[in-house]
């Protein structure tokens, strides 16, 4: 019988971490803020979340990270409608 560590990361924990970090990237926030948010929800430290992200999870989401960065840049670019309001 295999024992699961009390502090082991579940698939759901990893998914929450990834979704939260990607949201923070899209919104222009920092990954550190994302780690703190996840840490609060999972009763872990922000440092533990950051370590998990960098050691395990990030590699699985490289493409999603690039998409989130593009989405962030698109949000920061004003549209023509915003520059020239209708009269």
Automatic annotation (TrEMBL):
Pfam families: Myb_DNA-bind_6. InterPro entries: Homeodomain-like_sf (IPR009057), RsfA-like (IPR014243), SANT/Myb (IPR001005). Residues 1-57 form the Myb-like domain. It comes from the Bacteria. Signal peptide: none annotated. PROSITE patterns: MYB_LIKE. NCBIfam families: DNA_bind_RsfA. This is Prespore specific transcriptional activator RsfA.
């Amino acid at each position: 019988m295999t024992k699961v560590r009390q502090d082991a990361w579940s698939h759901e924990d990893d998914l929450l971490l990834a979704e939260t970090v990607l949201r923070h990237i899209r919104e222009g926030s920092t990954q550190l803020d994302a780690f703190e948010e996840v840490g609060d929800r999972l009763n872990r430290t922000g440092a533990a979340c950051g370590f998990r992200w960098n050691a395990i999870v990030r590699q699985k989401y490289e493409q999603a990270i690039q998409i989130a960065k593009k989405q962030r840049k698109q949000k920061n670019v004003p549209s023509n409608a915003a520059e020239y309001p209708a009269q």
